[in-house]
Design goal:
Layout lengths: L1 H14 L2 H14 L3 H28 L4 E7 L8 H13 L4 E6 L12 E5 L3 H9 E6 L3 H4 L9 E4 L11 H4 L3 H13 L2 E4 L2 H9 L7 E3 L13 H15 L6 E5 L16 H12 L3 E5 L9 H4 L7 E3 L6 H7 L2 E4 L5 H4 L6 E4 L3 H7 L12 E3 L2 H9 L3 H14 L8 H13 L1
Parallel strand pairs: 1-2, 1-4, 2-3, 4-5, 5-6, 6-7, 8-9, 8-11, 9-10, 11-12, 12-13
Amino acid sequence: MLNSIRQKLYELMVEGRLLEAVFHKMWSLFLKGCHKIGRGIGFLFGLPDRAIRHFARKHLEKHTEIDKHTILFLTYQGVYTCNPKAIANEMLKQKLPYRLVWMTRKKDQENTCPAGIEAVKRDSFACYEAAAVAKVIIDNTHNLSRIGIAKKPGQVLLQTWHGSLGIKRLDGEVVKNKEWDRLAQICQRDTDYCISNSSFETEVYRESYWGDVPVLTYGHARNDILFSTDQEQLDRLDVKVRRFFEIKLKTKIALYAPTHKDNGYEYLYDLDYFRIREALEKKFGGTWIIAVRFHSRLSSRSRRWLASAPSFVFDATAYPDIQELMLSTSVGLTDYSSWVFDYILLKRPVFIIADDIEDFSQKRSFYYPLESTPFSIATNSHELVNNIDNFNEVSYLQQVNDFLKDKGCMEDGHAAERIVAKIKELTS
């Protein structure tokens, strides 16, 4: 009994909730209904809790041995997705003798992980313990530094990132302040390898956070599925997507997925969905729906923004894996989001629709001119409809091939195999 109490107190210390848990509940008996005072007391308890947390985590890191068979996965989305998912799947496929741990953002997201993956909630004791034990940490953004986990000597951090060939500049090159400078220094210090899919992306790494970090040009594991020839697997994923939308197998999907804005003025472009669907049906045939997928930062607003949309417009924001959506999508629509630079590996049509190109270019800036992409550009629905009407598949495919060649893209569907082989080497 005493040992279990000690363990619980230790866990609360590591999580930074010791005083809050012990005292705040006592105070709440007296402060029920007085929320402002309750929040104030919570803040006061939070100050010493943060100091306790710092020393408790240092103790945990120091007294926890690294296990070369433990692999920790993190994504900024928090769910089972992106490059870390594809790497984990390859490990499961090869039946490797690893303990695979996935960090989720919320308790209910633990159910998204398949059998063989141990899910731990972010900011929990189990999360920090796994971070102290893992030999290899696989990330797709700056998760470690943002949640206050320090990489220990002997651990290896693989940065897989979440975009590729993207046109908009990374935050580190655009946002100049002390916090981002600190983040850049941590990334440079803690990252052991960056995973790239092209000479272009390697240069982006060099110019942003990882100037001297070794780059492994293996391709992005999340894109392996886009090269799959396993028709049974592809059919299964297609059925999965269409069940999510509750649509028929033969219904065609146009995926509209814009990025987020840096100026805080977030909005959905005012599209004429009726005219766009009519143009798609006229040009490509069949019956169409339009799936709208918001950036993860805006996911809470999707239902409100789409409340007045036509019945053939579906909210795809909650679907966890955009690569699976790509496989079922016949046409892509975006403003500047990097997902379409994965999507073109399927050689399917992409159209740009954005009414803030000049403003976005000045404030965020692009790595290369928007006009140099294979995609036609529209600033309103009328122009988008014209671009759909005038789409030329032969010309487009040639531009896609030229674009990928120009960026030095080497994707071939075997990235996960290469990355897992590297992990085997690192853990041998």
